[in-house]
Amino acid sequence: MKLAIVGKGGSGKTTTAGVIARLLARQGLDVVALDCDANPNLGISLGLGPEETERLVGIRQALDDGEEEHAPSADELLTRFGAPAPDGVRLAVVTRIDRPNPG
Asked: Which of 17, 28, 31, 44 allows an S-S link to 5, with CB 3.0 to 4.6 Å?
């Protein structure tokens, strides 16, 4: 299952995404949360805290600045640029997904 949360700024998308991700993970599902927001705060909503969230944002900025290479696969993305969050959610802060289904 793939789920995207969209809406106007300030409408509660990040909070809603965090709650849904944790609830699904608590039910035993494998949950990967991708924060694609220009102002990424999903880590805070998931309970990672500001320091770890800022670390992930810094990694995304390094990618944007060309200081890091993009991950060739989803697993590699989560290993290199992600973090485990409470309840078993895995989080990565990303700018774009070039090949969402490479095979």
From this structure: 17
